[in-house]
Design a protein that fits this description.
The structure is a homodimer. Chain A is of the alpha+beta class and about 425 residues long. The first copy, chain A, has 2 domains: about 170 residues, Beta-Lactamase; about 160 residues, Hypothetical protein af1432, CATH 1.10.3210. Chain A contains 19 helices and 7 strands. Chain A has a 6-stranded antiparallel sheet, sandwiched between helices. In chain A, a hairpin with a 5-residue loop joins strand 6 and strand 7. Strand 1 of chain A pairs antiparallel with strand 1 of chain B, so a sheet runs across the interface.
Chain lengths: ~425, ~425
């Protein structure tokens, strides 16, 4: 065996260096995986939860929070769990606020020995903070856009290596978070634009004020009941808000005429779904929304082929249009007219039922009838929600439209059934006589 | 000196391992930097150029292309330079097509010795390909969404290490590219939505068909002449397209009345900018577009305070509204009416000039007059561009509105000046008498 004589100190150093490289290699590989996982998310909620999860794993600690700077309100906010819950506080408070303000990294090995730590939070939550690592998050212009905070490293305080690793993750996250914010802002702008457009179009005819927004809400209730995907729900919501866009091309005199329409005027009004389709087709909808024009344009088609504009039959009608169709009529029948009461709810349900299988698809009529009564009232009274008493809503949440129909059908309703009708009717019937 | 005796082979292996770790460490650090730079871009063009640059640096090669799969058209496309130029080809062709179809990595040390290489491209471009590394790019569902291709590694063919590195970059890029695509699709949908809305609102009044789109185009010409930022241009364009949104609330009978308006009707029409502002304020505009409602709502204000709805004066009027104001009047004066000729251009310029300093801001009137005549015609004839002869447009591109005014002012125009008036007038004057 050939041997070599080396200086013991150098040899030891060599082994140490190798060990260090191995470790760093491991960490860089970890970092790469974190990065890959982070870059896959574009919605801010999911992105933040993902980042927090990844940091917990990589730093081997109990908790991680990402606080985002809200410049406008001078606040820091953080996502606390799935579902959009968040906490907010003034951006100069606490350790996170200190780091956001000064840009310093704070690695605190013993939280309770540090005067900047506020033990009240632990008191409130029952959590026991031991050590904390808090670093600023900077964007490419080097502005602080948030703060990373890791809590309770397992087996002792955070190391210098942890600081570096979190710093690297923070650098990657910053760009990704800004991208997600841009994306969400853009989406919000688009959504509120569509909603505003729907409202302005409805407003041309006082009879239909708020109609499109309510259809969107009823449709979404059905969507949840029949378990549509999130993607379908978004298409349905957009089509619902825009289904009457074509009315912009209907002459005002016809749209708002009080008396009976002439056959020519009737035909003119009936052209609106076709206008909707034609106008919407000019919009360069994204792939996920590409069917909106067809769906919105078919909201007056009927199962038996007697609808318009195309006279499509059952299977030819897009399923989302079938949902719009039943919600459209339901809203029309239950809508308030200026100083005139709503149609009796018994009659509304009767008309909808009678149309099942000819006008409307049975399946979606059944789904409509499964909507909870508290949801119905919240939609009906969308602009006066403050009048609805929480106790009444809680009570009504145990019943659906079907339950109400059943009560109408029995000869001798129980006290609870009587209460159901009484509470619902209290809000449904406006009693304009009394008001005036 | 303490010494240690070690097995020579192990020692050598130790040194090799250390060297390898050092190298890998360097590469991982490079990779991290690439990642950080890539995650900062959200617009697809800039992202792709950035990725290609980074890969060239990291792999030490002469070129890099990222081919993106266009599923709908079964094509691969790539950005070739700043400014949006792209190449496209069927997604099964060439080495990129082979990799996109099979999912294999191809590391070709000598291009001309490989039968899959198509030397025609080199022949066309004059480039000399030596070695090529081509790898598929997969998204998180492991679908191939594109292909990375690196050309001509300096100092020999690509190594196994290069393959791994490019693979890692590709994994990161895939997520980022998909995000950028989503963002751009969403932006396109929003933009075309606004444009469609503008068109539908203009269409209610045949007198103003296409008006909003033209104002957006004139405004953008001025924006470029006075060197507004890209962000300002986007705000201006949005405000221009939406400036007449409030007309949706103006009664049709008044909007389309042929004869003279009563004072009450005139006041009603004058309420439209205020409606515009109120409606647009309901939209949850993103930060970058937040001033759109104010800007759009002030397009009828005048420098001397005699405008409406607020009677703002010079410095109180947003500068982008001042641009809208001058373009609004310019378009109104030069618009075709159904079967009626446009106002003489001499008269138009006279009216605009007369209003400078009282109605309009001098500075933007001056900018308007700097617009090239070919651009003016392209906007005026937006819907009949095919009638404009390329030679005439080229000739007109050497002159501005100011030049045309100058010709009107001289007593004896030169032959070129005469040609200028003749060519411009040929398109500007519609000669409906002759047509009918």
């Amino acid at each position: 065996m050939t041997t070599t004589i080396v200086d013991a100190k150098s040899y030891k150093r060599l082994l140490q260096e190798l060990e260090q490289h191995r470790k760093q290699h491991e960490r860089l590989k970890l970092l790469f995986n974190v990065t890959r996982n982070i870059t896959r998310e574009l919605t801010i909620d999911r992105l933040l939860l993902r980042i927090m999860d990844e940091v917990k794993n990589v730093l081997n600690c109990d908790r991680c929070s990402v606080f985002i700077m809200d410049e406008e309100n001078q606040e820091l906010w953080a996502q606390v769990a799935h579902g959009g819950d968040e906490i907010r506080f003034p951006s100069h408070l606490g350790i996170a606020g200190y780091v956001a303000t000064t840009g310093e990294t704070l690695n605190i090995p013993d939280a309770y020995a540090d005067h900047r730590f506020n033990p009240n939070i632990d008191k409130q939550t029952g959590y026991r903070t031991r050590n904390i690592l808090t670093i600023p998050m900077r964007n490419k212009m080097r502005n602080i856009i948030g703060v990373f905070q890791a809590l309770n490293k397992f087996g002792g305080p955070f190391t210098r290596d942890d600081e570096e690793l979190l710093d690297a993750i923070s650098a990657i996250s910053a760009g990704q978070i800004e991208n997600a914010q841009l994306y969400e802002e853009q989406k919000k702008t688009f959504d509120s634009f569509i909603e505003t457009l729907a409202t302005t179009i409805d407003a041309r005819d006082p009879m239909t004020a708020g109609h499109s927004k309510r259809i969107a809400m009823y449709s979404d209730e059905i969507a949840q009941i029949v378990k549509l995907t999130d993607a379908e729900r978004e298409v349905l919501r957009t089509a619902a808000l825009l289904h009457d866009y074509g009315k912009i091309a209907v002459r005002e005199a016809v749209l708002t005429k009080k008396g009976r329409l002439t056959p020519e005027e009737f035909e003119h009004i009936q052209s609106h779904p076709e206008f909707t389709r034609r106008i919407l087709r000019k919009i360069n909808f994204s792939r996920k929304l590409k069917d909106v024009p067809e769906i919105a344009g078919a909201h007056h088609e009927k199962i038996d082929g007697t609808g318009y504009p195309q006279g499509l039959r059952d299977k030819e009608i897009p399923k989302l249009s079938k949902i719009l169709a039943v919600c459209d009529v339901f809203d029309a029948l239950t809508s308030q007219r200026p100083y005139r009461d709503r149609m009796s709810f018994f009659k509304v349900l009767h008309i909808i039922n009678r149309g099942a299988g000819t006008d409307f698809d049975d399946f979606y009529v059944a789904a409509l009838k499964k909507i909870r009564l508290d949801r119905i009232l919240l939609i009906l009274e969308d602009e006066h929600k403050e009048n609805l008493r929480p106790g009444d809503l809680r009570f009504l949440s145990h019943f659906t439209l079907t339950d109400l129909m059943f009560v109408y059908a029995v000869d001798e309703p129980t006290p609870e059934q009587q209460k159901l009708v009484r509470v619902f009717t209290k809000y449904y019937v406006q009693n304009y006589e009394e008001v005036r």
